[in-house]
Prior knowledge:
CATH 2.40.240.10, 17% helix, four-stranded mixed β-sheet, 14 strands, RNA Polymerase Alpha Subunit, Chain A, domain 2
Amino acid sequence: xxxxxxLHVSRREKTGTRYARRERAAGKLPAVLYGxxxxxxxxxxxxxxxxxxFHSGERVFDIEVQDESVSQTVMLxxxxxxxxxxxxVHVDLxxxxxxxxxxxxxxxxFVGQAVGMKETGAVFSHPSxxxxxxxxxKDLPDHIDVNITDLEAHHxxxxxxxxxxxxxxxxxxxxxxxxxxTIKAEQATETTEAEDVEGAPAQPEVITEKKEEAEDKxx
Length: 219
């Protein structure tokens, strides 16, 4: 992974819930930078800029912190969301070296049309949308492609089936289901006219009446 962008940051002199709320109201995203044995620094990011990069899969950036003479390479470590789980309210950044190994979660991108989807009632699902991996920072991909063209119904693709780029170690459990095609069964039930009306079985009186008529004829 090459560093593609520089995040524009500024120092936060005041911290705490009240001040963080003011930052967000001003279009900023509160952040903390830590790692490499250095003192942690409270920062503010440009909310729109940061989310644009994060949503595209980028996680390694250069930053220039005020009062620090050199730029630093940092990695997005964590995003905290509001109580609805929709809006980012805080991010953690960690200092990294491009050659050091790190653990990271990388988004999966599904490519192709599963052959199993041609069957009636077929439903495609991907229980896992990302894989946990270990790699050198320079080798971290923005995403990992999963070819689902040959995916048949009820034959899942597991984490161990995903082809990983060179230099990447899978940390996710090998038997984790990544993608699967299932067939939704159609349940058809036959009902009598009586069941349609009252949900009850056919009335036995009809049979009794026929039996009585037969007895009359015999008598």
